[in-house]
Amino acid sequence: MNRAGKAAAAGGPPRLVVAGLSGDSGKTIVSVALLLEAGRRGMPVRAFKKGPDYIDAAWLAWASGAPARNLDTFLMGFERPARSFALHAVPTGCNLIEGNRGLYDGVDAHGSHSTGALAKSLRAPVILVLNATKMTRTAAALVLGCQKLDPEVPIAGVILNHTAGDRHSGILRDAIESVCDIPVLGAIPKLNAAFLPSRHLGLVPPAEHAGASALAQTLLDATRTYIAWDRLFEISNSAPALDASPLELTQRCYGTRLRIGYVTDSAFTFYYPENLEALEREGAELIPLSALSSPALPDSLDGLYIGGGFPETHAATLAANSGFLTSIRHAARNGLPIYAECGGLMLLARNLLWRSERSKMAAVLPFDVEVCPSPQGHGYTELSVDAANPFFPRGFRMLGHEFHYSRILAGENSLPSTVCTLSKGEGCFQHRDGIVTRNVWASYTHLHALATPEWARAFLSVVHRRAPVAA
């Protein structure tokens, strides 16, 4: 066993948290480059994303070649994320956890459920990525403040981003290392290439990035001389033992496999791997479908799952695939159980309005949706079921999240009925969510199977009651 493997075996799984002082600090570029470098060296890698994020997680999955797991202590508590990490982490190699927002940014002024809190619970060394634009010694004050605010957060090093040349980098390095007594492990200059372009909901997902196939080598070439990879991997292997047993996942089957279609293409990419896996453990056979190119739903489907994504950027192509939209509408009218989140809700609407264009959708739900210039709902949601429906019992409480620029266009007298009230979040309208018609559930709230383990069984129970299942 090599030295790195011995270090990992002596402690816990090798691991690093890549954190920042704010959003857009460069965490994702550093995280993706680190995973690619580890893979280039032949190291096993796994990636994790703090918080309820789909797009950054998709890039981490792209770079690691394996599903990226979300770790969210607000949704899941502290035990389940640690046990999920223990289940999926590689015992040697590199396990990377990308933070979100700033290191201490959480759900309140105390920073509850922040990246720093997650790092402490995982006993994971933190690498702080700092956007150094137009600053020198002040950078040391920022890093020192992070150290002093919570000395239990194990900040192990700093990577500078957007530096303005060797002299600028040298001053920053000397200031931080002399004041904070931790190493500067990289200084990335202002690079001309827009490696990961952004738009209204954040980064463009890998499925829509035209140059993704060539991006890996470009990123490796751009960062190779600027980051001390060997020292980063040494720090990763210095992580102590992790006091968490792997998550145990129960399995159940209805006696025959329930055929559940799920819409997965460049317009609909927002699926947590745990959600799909939970459906399979509960007895589902997952059938991938494309709203962009599949001619129609298969007649043999027992249920349909439509996750989130960017239907607005594919609206014309979706509208042109009228056979698929018509088959969804007919299936819903015939009682097919459908579970739709955010982008899925938009697909089930009558029309989608964006940038002065109106595109026909499936018309399962009696309203149009409009994509606005600013977010209409962003953050965690807390739901309580207060009306009868096929999916969840009255009084059932759920934690989820929403991030949508679209809104439902309906007058006060024509709002569809909903089954959930929100004590936190916006939902569909008037702090309500969960539009239910026949066996269709549509909401702006996204649920995670580790936060709401009842979700998969609830959905498949509706499917099971309708489907012609053998005893």
Describe the protein in words.
The protein has helices at 3-10, 27-40, 55-64, 73-76, 79-88, 115-122, 138-149, 166-180, 212-223, 229-237, 273-281, 315-320, 322-333, 343-348, 454-466; strands at residues 15-20, 45-50, 69-71, 94-98, 126-131, 155-163, 184-189, 198-199, 202-203, 258-263, 284-289, 303-306, 338-341, 351-354, 357-360, 368-371, 377-385, 397-404, 406-409, 418-424, 432-437, 440-443. 31% of the residues lie in helices and 24% in strands. The protein has a nine-stranded mixed beta sheet with strand order 11-10-12-13-22-21-20-17-18. The chain has a seven-stranded parallel beta sheet with strand order 3-2-4-1-5-6-7, sandwiched between helices. The protein is of the alpha/beta class and 471 residues long. Helix 7 (138-149) packs parallel to helix 8. Mean pLDDT is 92; it is low at 1-10. The radius of gyration is 23 Å and the shape is globular. The chain folds into two domains: 3-237, P-loop containing nucleotide triphosphate hydrolases (Rossmann fold); 258-466, Class I glutamine amidotransferase (GATase) domain (Rossmann fold, 3-Layer(aba) Sandwich), CATH 3.40.50.880.
